[in-house]
Specification:
With 176 residues, the chain is an all-alpha fold. The protein has six helices and no strands. The longest helix is centred in the C-terminal third of the chain and has 46 residues. The chain starts with 11 loop residues before the first helix and ends with a helix. This is Terminase small subunit.
Length: 176
């Protein structure tokens, strides 16, 4: 594993400032000047490498966000379940790409990927359980409405209370 760059060894606040300034469109020289006013010394080449890395990461995130938004828009109101599955698929694809591009991952990197896979599968299980609960609640509400409509229907006025209760029990799926 490569040793941390001089930028990586800076305090977090300084690294965040570099990212913020780059996000504002500042040049490397402008960022260097600003850092020097704060008594933060880094080489121009180290800052250049770091800003190139920031630019690549930003571009990949932007592309990923655009693809995700386009796919979700295409899915429309198809439901949260599809959106969660789509996001999970995008994460899985990213992990696969990381594995296929790696020249040999360290034990820590393997552990991070394993944790990501575990978290992803947990997300999918949680989503499936949530979807099932929503469906069960929707079905119960539909049965309740149907039973209420049976009781309120004028055509049912000639039926005995016992018959109406039997019909409602059948709709609700409970014993009369």
């Amino acid at each position: 594993m490569a040793r941390p760059s001089s930028i990586d060894r800076l305090p977090e606040a300084a690294r965040e400032l570099i990212g913020k300034l780059r996000g504002q469109g500042r040049t490397i020289d402008e960022i260097l000047d600003h850092l020097r006013t704060l008594d933060v010394e880094v080489s121009r080449s180290a800052l250049g490498r770091h800003t190139q890395w920031l630019d690549r990461v930003s571009e990949r995130m932007l592309q990923s966000r655009q693809v995700t938004e386009a796919l979700i828009e295409r899915l429309g109101a198809a439901g949260e379940n599809r959106q969660v599955r789509l996001i999970a698929e995008l994460i899985g694809t990213g992990m696969f790409e990381a594995l296929s591009e790696a020249d040999g991952l360290s034990a820590a990197e393997h552990a991070h990927l394993a944790r990501a896979v575990k978290d992803l599968s947990q997300t999918l299980r949680t989503d499936a359980a949530y979807t099932e609960r929503v469906r069960a609640l929707a079905a119960a509400e539909a049965r309740e409405r149907a039973a209420a409509e049976v009781a309120a229907n004028p055509a049912m006025q000639g039926l005995s209370a016992g018959t109406i209760e039997a019909i409602k029990a059948t709709i609700l799926g409970v014993g009369a």
